[in-house]
Amino acid sequence: MNAPLRYSRDELMRSHPYARPHEAAGYRLHGGFLADGAYVSPRTLVRWPAVRAWGEALKARGWPLIDASDDLLKRDGYPSFEQHKLLLAKGLGQTLWNSLTVTGIIEGRGQGLCSMVAPDMQKLIVEPLAETATGHLNAGLLYAHGADEGGDPAKPGEGGHDAMWFAARDLVFGKGAYPAPEPPGSIAREVAGREMAELPEGFEQLIKFLMNVLMIEIRAESFFALCMRIFRDRDLFKDRREAAELAAVLVERIRADEQSHVGYLQVLISELRSFTWRAAGGETASGAAILDPVWARMVEWHGSTERDLAAARSRAAIESQVIAARGEGAGRALLSRFDALDERVMA
User: Against a cut of 0.85, is the pTM above it?
Assistant: First the structure.
Protein backbone atom coordinates (compact mmCIF):
# COMPACT_ATOMS: atom_id res chain seq x y z
CA MET A 1 0.00 0.00 0.00
CA ASN A 2 1.39 3.38 -1.01
CA ALA A 3 1.96 6.02 1.66
CA PRO A 4 -0.46 8.97 1.60
CA LEU A 5 0.63 12.39 0.36
CA ARG A 6 -1.10 14.64 2.94
CA TYR A 7 0.01 14.86 6.57
CA SER A 8 -0.60 16.89 9.67
CA ARG A 9 2.25 18.45 11.61
CA ASP A 10 1.72 15.99 14.45
CA GLU A 11 2.08 13.09 12.04
CA LEU A 12 5.34 14.37 10.55
CA MET A 13 6.76 14.94 14.03
CA ARG A 14 5.99 11.41 15.23
CA SER A 15 8.87 9.21 16.44
CA HIS A 16 9.11 5.46 16.76
CA PRO A 17 8.14 3.84 20.08
CA TYR A 18 11.56 3.62 21.71
CA ALA A 19 12.45 0.86 24.15
CA ARG A 20 15.21 2.96 25.69
CA PRO A 21 16.51 6.52 25.29
CA HIS A 22 19.72 7.67 23.62
CA GLU A 23 22.53 8.70 25.98
CA ALA A 24 26.30 8.89 25.48
CA ALA A 25 29.33 10.53 27.11
CA GLY A 26 27.13 12.21 29.69
CA TYR A 27 24.81 13.77 27.07
CA ARG A 28 21.09 13.10 26.78
CA LEU A 29 20.46 12.87 23.05
CA HIS A 30 17.59 12.63 20.61
CA GLY A 31 16.49 9.43 18.94
CA GLY A 32 16.34 6.10 20.69
CA PHE A 33 16.57 2.33 20.45
CA LEU A 34 14.02 -0.28 19.49
CA ALA A 35 13.58 -3.48 21.44
CA ASP A 36 16.15 -5.21 19.22
CA GLY A 37 18.75 -2.55 20.09
CA ALA A 38 18.67 -0.76 16.72
CA TYR A 39 19.07 3.02 16.78
CA VAL A 40 16.26 4.91 15.03
CA SER A 41 16.35 8.60 14.13
CA PRO A 42 13.85 10.94 15.80
CA ARG A 43 10.66 12.10 14.10
CA THR A 44 11.01 9.66 11.18
CA LEU A 45 8.17 7.21 11.77
CA VAL A 46 6.00 9.10 9.27
CA ARG A 47 8.38 11.73 7.87
CA TRP A 48 10.64 9.31 5.99
CA PRO A 49 7.81 7.38 4.28
CA ALA A 50 6.23 10.73 3.41
CA VAL A 51 9.43 12.01 1.75
CA ARG A 52 9.71 8.83 -0.29
CA ALA A 53 6.05 9.05 -1.31
CA TRP A 54 6.41 12.66 -2.48
CA GLY A 55 9.47 11.69 -4.48
CA GLU A 56 7.65 8.81 -6.16
CA ALA A 57 4.68 11.06 -6.94
CA LEU A 58 7.00 13.59 -8.57
CA LYS A 59 8.64 10.91 -10.71
CA ALA A 60 5.19 9.66 -11.70
CA ARG A 61 4.53 13.15 -13.06
CA GLY A 62 7.58 12.76 -15.29
CA TRP A 63 10.09 14.75 -13.25
CA PRO A 64 13.33 13.15 -12.02
CA LEU A 65 14.91 13.88 -8.67
CA ILE A 66 17.98 16.11 -8.88
CA ASP A 67 21.33 14.53 -8.07
CA ALA A 68 22.00 14.89 -4.35
CA SER A 69 24.97 12.54 -4.09
CA ASP A 70 28.54 13.39 -3.18
CA ASP A 71 29.35 13.09 -6.89
CA LEU A 72 28.55 16.82 -6.90
CA LEU A 73 31.73 17.49 -4.90
CA LYS A 74 34.66 18.09 -7.26
CA ARG A 75 37.19 18.55 -4.46
CA ASP A 76 38.06 16.17 -1.67
CA GLY A 77 37.89 17.35 1.92
CA TYR A 78 40.92 18.83 3.64
CA PRO A 79 42.90 17.74 5.58
CA SER A 80 42.85 14.19 4.28
CA PHE A 81 42.70 11.11 6.48
CA GLU A 82 46.45 10.57 6.16
CA GLN A 83 47.15 14.20 7.04
CA HIS A 84 44.94 14.00 10.12
CA LYS A 85 46.59 10.74 11.09
CA LEU A 86 50.04 12.31 10.89
CA LEU A 87 49.04 15.23 13.12
CA LEU A 88 47.33 12.97 15.65
CA ALA A 89 50.31 10.60 15.74
CA LYS A 90 52.48 13.61 16.58
CA GLY A 91 50.17 14.63 19.42
CA LEU A 92 48.68 17.51 17.45
CA GLY A 93 44.95 16.99 17.79
CA GLN A 94 43.77 20.59 17.71
CA THR A 95 42.86 20.50 14.02
CA LEU A 96 40.43 17.62 14.51
CA TRP A 97 39.22 19.02 17.83
CA ASN A 98 38.41 22.33 16.13
CA SER A 99 36.60 20.62 13.26
CA LEU A 100 34.42 18.57 15.62
CA THR A 101 33.68 21.61 17.79
CA VAL A 102 32.86 23.94 14.89
CA THR A 103 30.66 21.28 13.33
CA GLY A 104 28.72 21.00 16.59
CA ILE A 105 28.34 24.77 16.83
CA ILE A 106 27.09 25.05 13.26
CA GLU A 107 24.68 22.17 13.82
CA GLY A 108 23.34 24.05 16.82
CA ARG A 109 22.57 27.05 14.63
CA GLY A 110 20.30 24.78 12.61
CA GLN A 111 17.76 24.94 15.43
CA GLY A 112 16.74 28.24 13.84
CA LEU A 113 14.77 26.20 11.31
CA CYS A 114 12.30 25.46 14.11
CA SER A 115 11.15 29.07 14.08
CA MET A 116 11.36 29.62 10.32
CA VAL A 117 8.11 30.20 8.48
CA ALA A 118 8.17 29.74 4.72
CA PRO A 119 6.10 32.13 2.60
CA ASP A 120 2.89 30.81 1.10
CA MET A 121 4.29 29.11 -2.00
CA GLN A 122 0.81 28.52 -3.40
CA LYS A 123 0.54 32.26 -4.10
CA LEU A 124 3.12 31.89 -6.86
CA ILE A 125 2.82 28.24 -7.96
CA VAL A 126 0.08 27.21 -10.36
CA GLU A 127 -0.07 23.53 -9.42
CA PRO A 128 -1.79 22.50 -6.14
CA LEU A 129 0.67 21.88 -3.30
CA ALA A 130 -1.39 20.00 -0.73
CA GLU A 131 0.15 16.64 -1.71
CA THR A 132 3.78 17.77 -2.08
CA ALA A 133 6.79 18.26 0.17
CA THR A 134 6.61 21.96 -0.73
CA GLY A 135 3.15 22.11 0.77
CA HIS A 136 4.42 20.65 4.06
CA LEU A 137 7.33 22.99 4.79
CA ASN A 138 5.36 24.73 7.52
CA ALA A 139 3.63 21.49 8.54
CA GLY A 140 6.62 20.02 10.30
CA LEU A 141 9.41 19.58 7.73
CA LEU A 142 11.35 22.72 8.67
CA TYR A 143 10.74 22.27 12.40
CA ALA A 144 11.77 18.62 12.41
CA HIS A 145 14.97 19.44 10.52
CA GLY A 146 15.86 22.19 13.00
CA ALA A 147 15.09 19.96 15.98
CA ASP A 148 17.36 17.26 14.55
CA GLU A 149 20.23 19.70 14.18
CA GLY A 150 20.15 21.75 17.35
CA GLY A 151 17.70 19.92 19.61
CA ASP A 152 13.96 20.27 19.94
CA PRO A 153 13.10 23.54 21.76
CA ALA A 154 10.12 21.69 23.23
CA LYS A 155 12.47 19.19 24.88
CA PRO A 156 15.06 21.20 26.83
CA GLY A 157 18.08 19.19 27.87
CA GLU A 158 17.82 16.76 24.96
CA GLY A 159 20.61 17.36 22.49
CA GLY A 160 20.51 17.05 18.73
CA HIS A 161 23.43 16.81 16.34
CA ASP A 162 25.21 19.65 18.11
CA ALA A 163 25.46 17.62 21.31
CA MET A 164 26.24 14.42 19.39
CA TRP A 165 29.31 16.03 17.81
CA PHE A 166 30.43 17.40 21.19
CA ALA A 167 29.95 13.93 22.70
CA ALA A 168 32.08 12.34 19.96
CA ARG A 169 34.77 14.98 20.51
CA ASP A 170 34.79 14.46 24.28
CA LEU A 171 35.00 10.69 23.86
CA VAL A 172 38.22 10.81 21.83
CA PHE A 173 39.91 13.83 23.42
CA GLY A 174 38.32 14.35 26.83
CA LYS A 175 36.53 17.54 27.82
CA GLY A 176 38.35 20.82 27.33
CA ALA A 177 41.40 19.37 25.56
CA TYR A 178 41.88 22.59 23.56
CA PRO A 179 40.48 26.14 23.67
CA ALA A 180 37.15 26.65 21.94
CA PRO A 181 37.69 27.75 18.31
CA GLU A 182 35.96 30.69 16.65
CA PRO A 183 33.39 29.32 14.18
CA PRO A 184 32.89 30.97 10.78
CA GLY A 185 30.04 33.41 10.48
CA SER A 186 28.52 31.48 7.57
CA ILE A 187 29.27 28.40 5.50
CA ALA A 188 26.71 29.23 2.80
CA ARG A 189 27.14 30.71 -0.67
CA GLU A 190 26.23 34.37 -0.36
CA VAL A 191 25.74 36.57 -3.40
CA ALA A 192 24.92 40.27 -3.48
CA GLY A 193 21.98 41.11 -5.71
CA ARG A 194 19.18 39.11 -7.24
CA GLU A 195 19.50 35.81 -9.13
CA MET A 196 15.81 34.96 -9.55
CA ALA A 197 14.35 38.26 -10.67
CA GLU A 198 11.14 36.51 -11.77
CA LEU A 199 10.23 35.87 -8.11
CA PRO A 200 9.64 38.15 -5.11
CA GLU A 201 12.80 38.53 -3.07
CA GLY A 202 11.49 36.61 -0.06
CA PHE A 203 10.76 33.55 -2.21
CA GLU A 204 14.20 33.74 -3.81
CA GLN A 205 15.85 33.96 -0.39
CA LEU A 206 14.02 30.87 0.85
CA ILE A 207 14.84 28.79 -2.24
CA LYS A 208 18.50 29.76 -2.15
CA PHE A 209 18.65 29.09 1.58
CA LEU A 210 17.28 25.59 1.07
CA MET A 211 19.70 24.98 -1.82
CA ASN A 212 22.58 26.03 0.43
CA VAL A 213 21.37 23.72 3.20
CA LEU A 214 21.12 20.78 0.80
CA MET A 215 24.66 21.31 -0.48
CA ILE A 216 25.98 21.67 3.09
CA GLU A 217 24.29 18.36 3.95
CA ILE A 218 25.90 16.74 0.91
CA ARG A 219 29.31 18.15 1.89
CA ALA A 220 28.87 16.69 5.37
CA GLU A 221 28.93 13.14 3.99
CA SER A 222 32.68 13.25 3.40
CA PHE A 223 33.24 14.49 6.96
CA PHE A 224 31.15 11.62 8.34
CA ALA A 225 33.28 9.12 6.46
CA LEU A 226 36.51 10.81 7.54
CA CYS A 227 35.59 10.87 11.23
CA MET A 228 34.48 7.25 11.32
CA ARG A 229 37.70 6.18 9.63
CA ILE A 230 39.83 8.19 12.06
CA PHE A 231 37.98 7.00 15.16
CA ARG A 232 38.19 3.36 14.08
CA ASP A 233 41.89 3.41 13.19
CA ARG A 234 43.58 1.25 15.81
CA ASP A 235 46.82 3.22 15.48
CA LEU A 236 45.03 6.25 16.93
CA PHE A 237 43.48 6.97 20.34
CA LYS A 238 45.08 3.80 21.70
CA ASP A 239 44.35 4.79 25.30
CA ARG A 240 40.70 5.55 24.38
CA ARG A 241 39.94 2.68 22.03
CA GLU A 242 36.48 1.84 23.40
CA ALA A 243 35.52 5.51 23.58
CA ALA A 244 36.74 6.09 20.02
CA GLU A 245 34.60 3.20 18.78
CA LEU A 246 31.57 4.76 20.45
CA ALA A 247 32.43 8.12 18.87
CA ALA A 248 32.37 6.43 15.46
CA VAL A 249 28.96 4.94 16.26
CA LEU A 250 27.65 8.40 17.20
CA VAL A 251 28.78 9.74 13.83
CA GLU A 252 27.01 6.82 12.15
CA ARG A 253 23.82 7.83 13.96
CA ILE A 254 24.19 11.45 12.86
CA ARG A 255 24.72 10.22 9.32
CA ALA A 256 21.53 8.16 9.53
CA ASP A 257 19.60 11.17 10.82
CA GLU A 258 20.88 13.39 8.01
CA GLN A 259 19.59 11.07 5.30
CA SER A 260 16.06 12.33 5.87
CA HIS A 261 17.28 15.92 5.46
CA VAL A 262 18.98 15.20 2.15
CA GLY A 263 15.90 13.23 1.13
CA TYR A 264 13.28 15.93 1.69
CA LEU A 265 15.46 18.75 0.33
CA GLN A 266 16.22 16.71 -2.79
CA VAL A 267 12.49 16.17 -3.33
CA LEU A 268 11.69 19.78 -2.51
CA ILE A 269 14.14 21.36 -4.97
CA SER A 270 13.06 18.82 -7.59
CA GLU A 271 9.41 19.78 -7.03
CA LEU A 272 10.16 23.48 -7.31
CA ARG A 273 11.80 22.81 -10.69
CA SER A 274 8.68 20.99 -11.88
CA PHE A 275 6.16 23.70 -11.02
CA THR A 276 4.80 26.52 -13.14
CA TRP A 277 5.48 29.84 -11.43
CA ARG A 278 3.50 33.05 -11.62
CA ALA A 279 6.35 35.40 -12.43
CA ALA A 280 6.60 39.17 -12.13
CA GLY A 281 4.40 40.97 -14.63
CA GLY A 282 1.68 38.35 -14.52
CA GLU A 283 3.35 35.89 -16.88
CA THR A 284 4.15 32.29 -16.03
CA ALA A 285 7.60 30.71 -16.06
CA SER A 286 9.07 27.23 -15.79
CA GLY A 287 10.53 26.42 -12.41
CA ALA A 288 13.43 24.65 -14.10
CA ALA A 289 14.25 27.77 -16.10
CA ILE A 290 14.28 29.85 -12.90
CA LEU A 291 16.09 27.43 -10.58
CA ASP A 292 18.54 25.49 -12.72
CA PRO A 293 21.09 28.27 -13.35
CA VAL A 294 21.19 29.11 -9.64
CA TRP A 295 21.45 25.46 -8.61
CA ALA A 296 24.37 24.98 -11.03
CA ARG A 297 26.21 27.92 -9.44
CA MET A 298 25.38 26.60 -5.97
CA VAL A 299 26.83 23.18 -6.83
CA GLU A 300 29.99 24.74 -8.30
CA TRP A 301 30.56 26.94 -5.26
CA HIS A 302 30.01 24.25 -2.63
CA GLY A 303 31.67 21.49 -4.60
CA SER A 304 34.79 23.38 -5.71
CA THR A 305 35.16 27.05 -4.71
CA GLU A 306 34.24 26.72 -1.05
CA ARG A 307 36.39 23.64 -0.62
CA ASP A 308 39.42 25.48 -1.99
CA LEU A 309 38.76 28.46 0.27
CA ALA A 310 38.26 26.23 3.32
CA ALA A 311 41.45 24.30 2.55
CA ALA A 312 43.46 27.51 2.38
CA ARG A 313 42.09 28.64 5.75
CA SER A 314 42.76 25.24 7.31
CA ARG A 315 46.30 25.10 5.97
CA ALA A 316 47.11 28.51 7.46
CA ALA A 317 45.67 27.52 10.84
CA ILE A 318 47.55 24.21 10.85
CA GLU A 319 50.83 25.95 10.04
CA SER A 320 50.36 28.31 12.95
CA GLN A 321 49.54 25.44 15.34
CA VAL A 322 52.44 23.26 14.20
CA ILE A 323 55.03 26.04 14.41
CA ALA A 324 53.75 27.07 17.84
CA ALA A 325 53.95 23.48 19.09
CA ARG A 326 57.23 22.37 17.45
CA GLY A 327 59.19 25.50 16.73
CA GLU A 328 60.30 26.81 13.35
CA GLY A 329 62.73 24.10 12.24
CA ALA A 330 60.94 20.96 13.40
CA GLY A 331 57.60 22.53 12.54
CA ARG A 332 58.60 23.22 8.93
CA ALA A 333 59.89 19.68 8.56
CA LEU A 334 56.59 18.28 9.81
CA LEU A 335 54.62 20.61 7.54
CA SER A 336 56.61 19.36 4.58
CA ARG A 337 55.55 15.78 5.39
CA PHE A 338 51.99 16.99 5.94
CA ASP A 339 51.82 18.73 2.55
CA ALA A 340 53.21 15.67 0.78
CA LEU A 341 50.09 13.78 1.93
CA ASP A 342 47.64 16.18 0.24
CA GLU A 343 45.24 13.95 -1.72
CA ARG A 344 42.75 16.52 -2.95
CA VAL A 345 41.19 15.98 -6.35
CA MET A 346 41.74 19.12 -8.41
CA ALA A 347 39.15 18.51 -11.12
Answer: yes
